[in-house]
Structures are given as structure tokens and as C-alpha cells.
């Protein structure tokens, strides 16, 4: 059966822009051995698979409960909700494994970031930035030394899979994949992710919210805490 997976994958790489690429990938992902085959791809093939999976994952509204909606992606009417779920999970696992994200998410234009740290926590620091003339919040992930190794062919960095300290970066990539597919009034919009290959830093770029952190907002605006809790977004457990 492995040869069948390889043949299907060869067909995909020969025509990734054709209408049959996503259905062919769906056939591979429909079986556990096929999903294991995908997770064993090389980095460049994994990148192609991530971008194809992202096209389907952007149309995840069939997986979410109303009134939650997601960014409109490529509609695949012949795919069942369970099959779309495999695309999303594959995208998430490849992102965790290779420390990469779909091209749609990455910021390639100039991003200006101020030096002053506005907030910090156990996983990163937050600073103000400017992107395409808009004020944005830039949260930079703290990465322990030795977690990433350099890929000489592209100059990018990927996680060292065996390191215990990769848990934080893996969680980062997992959360970004989910965040990038969501669009809801109660969810802060993800503008994109910026990678600084020289410093080995990944930063999420989101809309700027001028109310400070949650406690500052509550205390400064006399906010109704029950209404805030009621506005939280709960996702189905199978999205994890």
C-alpha cells in the first residue's frame, strides 16, 4: 500500500495546482498508514502538503459549532467533515514537526518593531509594531538555546525533534495553525507570523488592542466580568 501512497504523492507534486491535488491528498490522509507516510515526508514535500492542507483547513466551518465561523478558503464539496478534519490535523502536526507554517500565514513584508517591552510572560514578550501603516502587537516566542538547528539549504531553522525543550515551540506552531483559521468577533485577529532567521525568533503579529492586559482592562473600564466570561469562545474537543 506504501507504493500507492508514493504514487499518489508523485501525482500531487507533478500538479499541485490542479483540481485533483486535494482529492488525491485526501485519499492518502483517509488511512492511518497514509497519514504516517505524510509525516515522514522531507521538508520541501512537507511544505507543499502544508499549503494544500491549509487550503482545506481555511474552510473548517463544517467542523465548528454555530455561530463560529472561519476564514473562507477553498471549498471542497466532496469532502466530508471528518475528512476535512484529517487535513487540519495533518497541517498542525507538520507545523509542529518541522517548525514551519503555511505561506498564507507568514509575513514577508517589512515589519517595524519597537525595542520597548510592553508585557512579558513565561512564553514570550510583547512589543508594539507597525505593519503596512497599522499599529500591531508583536509577541515574540522565547526559544531556549539548542532547540532549533539550521537548515543549510534554505537558511531557516527547524526544531530538534528529540529535545524536551521543543514543547514550547511545538505548542506555538499548533496554536498558530488553529488561530490562523478562525474568524470571530470575540477572537483577536491574527495578522500573521514573522520569522527572524538571524535571531531564530518567531513572532505573532495581531491587531493592536489599546486597553492593556485583561486585568488593566477590567479595572480601568469597570467591565462586567460575567459578560466577558460569557463571550469566551469554546471549540469542540476534537479540534485539539
* CATH overall fold name of the largest domain: Phosphorylase Kinase, domain 1
How do the strands line up in the largest sheet? 2-3-4-9-8
CATH classification, class level of the largest domain:
Alpha Beta
CATH superfamily of the largest domain: Phosphorylase Kinase, domain 1
Return residue spans where pLDDT drops below 50 for at least 5 consecutive residues: 61-75, 161-166, 233-240
Largest sheet features: 5 strands, antiparallel
Strand content: 15-25%
Please provide the ordered H/E string of secondary-structure elements. HHHHEHEEEEEHEEEHH
Number of strands: 9
Total domains, how many? 2
Q: What is the overall pLDDT average?
A: 75
Q: How many helices does DSSP assign?
A: 8
Q: What's the end-to-end separation, in Å? A: 29 Å
Q: Any idea what the shape is?
A: elongated
The radius of gyration computed from the alpha-carbon positions, rounded to a whole number of angstroms, is 19 Å
CATH architecture of the largest domain: 2-Layer Sandwich
User: Which range best describes the helical content: under 10%, 10-25%, 25-40%, 40-55%, 55-70% or over 70%?
Assistant: 25-40%
Class of secondary structure makeup? alpha+beta
What's the arrangement of secondary structure elements?
Blueprint: H1 2-14, H2 21-29, H3 32-39, H4 43-57, E1 69-70, H5 81-98, E2 111-120, E3 124-131, E4 134-141, E5 148-150, E6 157-159, H6 167-181, E7 182-183, E8 190-196, E9 201-207, H7 214-221, H8 225-230
Antiparallel strand pairs: 1-7, 2-3, 3-4, 4-9, 5-6, 8-9
Helix pairs in contact: 1-2, 4-5, 5-6
